[in-house]
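step: validate -> pass
step: tokenize input -> pass
step: predict -> running
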Amino acid sequence: MDPPVSSGPEEPDRHGPSGPLDHAERAEYERLRLVLGTRHRRLRLCGASLLLTLAVLLAPVSVVATWINSEVTDVDRYEQTVSPLARDPAVQDLMIDRVTDGLVENIDARKITDGLADALADRDAPRFLVDAARSLDEQLKGGLTTGVRYAVEKVVTSDAFAQAWDAIHRGAHTAATNVLTGEGGGALEVRGDTITLNVGTVIEELQEQLIGVTLVEAADVPGADKSIVLVRNDNLSEARDAARWLGVVGPWLPLAVVVLAGLGIWAAPSRRVALMAGGIGVAIMMCGLLVGLAVMRQIFLDAVTPVAQSQDASAAVYDTLVRFLRQAILTALLTALLTVIAGYFYGRGRGAAAVRSAAARSTESAGHALARTGLTTGAVGQWLRTNQRLTTGAVIGAGGLTLFLWNYPTPASVALLLLLVVVVLVILNVLAAADGSEQHSQR
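step: predict -> pass
step: emit ->
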């Protein structure tokens, strides 16, 4: 049987390779690839933007929640917060005034002068002397006020008072949530719509000493219900509810912020730009939080009641209570700014490239000088040179992890960690340059 006769050139298999693409097909292929790449890039950009936005918005909430949680759960931190109040001159003056008033109010000067007049009358003293004794009540009260104030001032400004203040708050840390949650009964309490300063608990601790220096009866010493109303505000209940909620989520929010930011940077088309954008966003939020603290301070002082009669004391109370929060905000702000700066120096800008080049030349020169003295690093240096990206990332990551795990980081601790990271990176680069490769190349 004869083989079939071919009628022309063999047609290519429709389902097999069709050979090189012609100009039109390649143009269509590039167009489709560009469309798919653009869509993929847009999806990544949208996802990264959403994650970074959530991280930036949660950052200030995380700082506040962590501060509240530390005050509620850490007795040492709480003691460090309230301890300066007993040593602040404005707060001491307020307590001296209120305790003195409470003591003098409990002393019946009229009863004392009447008793003196009756005693004189029983001894047949002249009438004018008896009448003069009865009219001494105001002078007696003024003298008692001066004497009692001196005695109370001596007690309140003493080291024993400050130690008693610290002991009360440390021994009764169930009151650590007094201002934040309205629970407990420490020196600072929230009662309905008022913030009060309770001086009776501290005075009771020093009752014997106070009685000894003032010559008043124990019944005249203010009890545990002796309080000074500092602030009255109708929104305290809402603030207390928010504080309870923040205290619960406090331990988890920082981790959530870090995870969201990390995922956002990982998903972004340009991770360096995403890192800088996240840092700028957090820095802006921290600045806003600092402004909010300043505004709240003014609102707090405007709400000072006439009963307190001391804006200085109220300002001291506010500044003392939020000083660790302000410190945490400044720490987060500094960290965010350093993140932005680091992202810039890893970029392609002329300034960043010049700085990197100068640093590389300096470490190379130092390493070569070390090698010329005979101190070469050999295989270790070669490994460091080959894995420079890995070691740099590991050092920076270790610094960031240390900062994250630091109990209560401060701007000073951030600066210290930054210095350590830079020093370690410089040492590693010098060791990498001292591997002896320069000497071998010269030979």
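step: describe -> The chain has 19 helices and three strands.
step: cleanup -> pass
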